[in-house]
């Protein structure tokens, strides 16, 4: 299934995959039985293995190979809350952290 407003290069093969909307896939790519989230950009020559999941908004660089069943998400954004009076496990102030997005294994 291919979502709306997707751009897929004619020399790319997408088989048995679910591709959400606003995805761009470059030339000479192979996607097999995977899930591609909204707004993903896949550059030239990428191979996405069976069962892989590409989270919303990720960019996969030229020539990358995504292993079967891998989970790829945006790099987690971690920041210290400098105004916090809380302490982390080492006793330092500002121990609270904010996570944007993390994909686990399994």
How would you characterize the overall build of this protein?
With 106 residues, this protein is mainly β. It has no helices and 14 strands. Helices cover 0% and strands 30% of the residues. The strands form four sheets. It has a four-stranded parallel β-sheet, with no helix packed on it. Strands 2-5-8-11 form a four-stranded parallel β-sheet, with no helix packed on it. A four-stranded parallel β-sheet has the order 3-6-9-12, with no helix packed on it. It is globular and about 25 Å long.
Give, in order, the helices and strands: EEEEEEEEEEEEEE
Low-confidence stretches: 77-84, 94-106
- What's the arrangement of strands in the largest beta sheet? 1-4-7-10
Helix content: under 10%
The biggest sheet amounts to: 4 strands, parallel
Summarize the topology.
Blueprint: E1 7-8, E2 13-15, E3 18-19, E4 24-25, E5 30-32, E6 35-36, E7 41-42, E8 47-48, E9 53-54, E10 59-60, E11 65-66, E12 71-72, E13 78-80, E14 97-99
Parallel strand pairs: 1-4, 2-5, 3-6, 4-7, 5-8, 6-9, 7-10, 8-11, 9-12
Antiparallel strand pairs: 13-14
Q: What would you say about this model in short?
A:
Helices cover 0% and strands 30% of the residues. The C terminus is likely disordered.
Q: What attributes characterize this protein structure?
A:
106 residues; mainly beta; four-stranded parallel sheet; globular; disordered C terminus
